[in-house]
């Protein structure tokens, strides 16, 4: 990823920095490892709970239970920076962050930590929201967990936090993979009034760029940054543009159809999905549309990203380019799925 001409002043390191990436097998974590490995200033250490990292990446790897403070004590030795991309269940999100902050606070020279939070910390807040807004955390359990972590981070002085919106792009399992299938199956489309909320999209490469800058910029400890397109589309507009990029028709989805999807089809499809993941079969279970999606599609919250644009000098990947790349990845993925 290239920097724009007007980049902020970045520390020049005489030696490569050792950067520990927690959650390195996830969608964002894997891209962070790739970007660090491709640069000339850092050496990534890819950590994940289960063994196995992409063999195409020639990087140091560690199997690590990030919820265990003793394990993190050992992992942080000799590390210059940490990127926390851990996802998983809500308990693991909080426990791993608490262990990380505790382990870091005991070091004489703690590393800078870039923590991946979420716009969901704002909960049910509506309107244009900047980083000073209240952390309501009242949307669901994930929202509450992310808010709790941010409160824990206040006692860890070397943390920089990023609050991305909807992180899309090639290899995005939900926002490109699942939504692409729902659009192609005509189970999702123009939702009418239910799709007029803001879709605060941010390309995964922009999130990674923000991570890299937060690792290197001096004097930004304690800062928080929203990440999203400056003028995000509505969810209806996102579905229309993505369907266009995929070459599939956009259809009108009625409120009744949404109710059928959420309350009649979703429960058995979730059971089928679990069975298909547990037993190796050639059949792929259809994805269930859960009630949280229509709720999110109607939510009128828009992220104010001026702080990231000013302090990090972020320039966002245009939506049309991002959707073209995403559609190409989706078509390749579906071609493999239909042959398997």
Descriptive overview:
With 340 residues, this protein is α/β, with parallel strands linked by helices. It has a domain at 17-165 and 201-228 and 300-316: NAD(P)-binding Rossmann-like Domain (Rossmann fold), CATH 3.40.50. It is built from 11 helices and 11 strands. The chain has helices at residues 27-38, 69-75, 90-105, 141-153, 173-184, 204-216, 235-246, 255-278, 292-297, 306-311, 319-339; strands at 17-22, 42-48, 60-63, 81-84, 112-116, 127-129, 159-164, 166-168, 201-203, 224-227, 301-303. The strands form 3 sheets. Strands 3-2-1-4-5-7-10 form a 7-stranded parallel beta sheet. A two-stranded parallel ribbon has the order 6-11. Strands 8-9 form a two-stranded parallel ribbon. Helix 1 packs across helix 6 (204-216) and helix 2 packs across helix 3 (90-105). It is globular and about 60 Å long. The relative contact order is 0.13.
Distance between the termini: 33 Å
The shape, in one word, is: globular
- Look at the helices and sheets and give the structural class: alpha/beta
Architecture (CATH level 2) name of the domain at 17-165 and 201-228 and 300-316: 3-Layer(aba) Sandwich
Strand content: 5-15%
CATH topology (level 3) name of the domain at 17-165 and 201-228 and 300-316: Rossmann fold
Radius of gyration: 20 Å
Order of helices and strands: EHEEHEHEEHEEHEHEHHHEHH
Query: What does the oligomeric state look like here?
Result: single chain
Helix percentage range: 40-55%
Largest sheet: 7 strands, parallel
CATH class descriptor of the domain at 17-165 and 201-228 and 300-316:
Alpha Beta
Q: What order do the strands of the largest sheet run in, or round the barrel if closed?
A: 3-2-1-4-5-7-10
Task: Kindly report the name of the CATH homologous superfamily of the domain at 17-165 and 201-228 and 300-316.
Answer: NAD(P)-binding Rossmann-like Domain
Number of helices: 11
Give the mean pLDDT: 90
Unreliable stretches, pLDDT < 50, 5 or more residues?
A: 1-6
The count of β-strands is 11
